[in-house]
Amino acid sequence: MRNRSILPLLLLAGLVVLALFAFGGTGFLGQLTESTTPEATSTAEPAPGAASGTPAAPAPPPPAQANPSGLPEVQESALPAEGRRILNLIRAGGPYRYSQDDQTFGNFERILPRRDRGYYREYTVPTPGEPDRGARRIVAGAGGDKYYTDDHYDSFKFIAEGS
Questions:
Q1: Other Cβ atoms closer than 10 A to 97
Q2: Does the N-terminal peptide bond of residue 95 adopt cis geometry, omega within 30 degrees of 0?
Q3: Which of 26, 40, 131, 141 could, after both became Cys, cross-link 35 (CB 3.0–4.6 A)?
Q4: pLDDT tens, position by position, 13-32
């Protein structure tokens, strides 16, 4: 009789281990929570255009590339200071402050050029004085194209890097 009472517990433990494996160890809600410590790092793949491994210093901005989107442009130098800092982190491959950073951006708004799922990744641009992540983001494409939004995806501007 004692063995029968252990069986449901073993099955439950197995399901928990399977769920942890399926959700990358963070659990289902792990992707919905923020880390407020600057030391938090992403375990996802390196950012588009970033070198693998731990870089010693941020890479220099790449030469300006043509705007493939037809969207308005913003010069890198015209971004807010926080945006320029996040661009340097993207080039260096992190670390990122929020668990949502360096995650797939779905482009559900269909403002950016249509690409296969997984092409775009999103990054938070902190807003001073905001109690949460705020509305500012940089979205980076696997081809090196990067876009800035300050209104939580209602509009985007192509970032002209190196200028």
A1: 22
A2: yes
A3: 40
A4: 665 555 544 444 443 433 33
Catalytic machinery residues: 122, 152
Residue 29 phi, psi (nearest 5): -80, -10
Polymer length of the chain: 163
Q: Nearest CA to 94 among 45, 133, 132?
A: 45
Dihedral sign (CA 121, 43, 134, 159): negative
Short-list 119, 100, 116, 111, CA closest to 149: 111
Residue 66 is predicted with a pLDDT of: 81
The three-state (H, E, C) secondary structure of 105-118, written as one string:
CCCCCCCCCCCCCC
CA–CA dist 36, 99 (Å, integer): 9
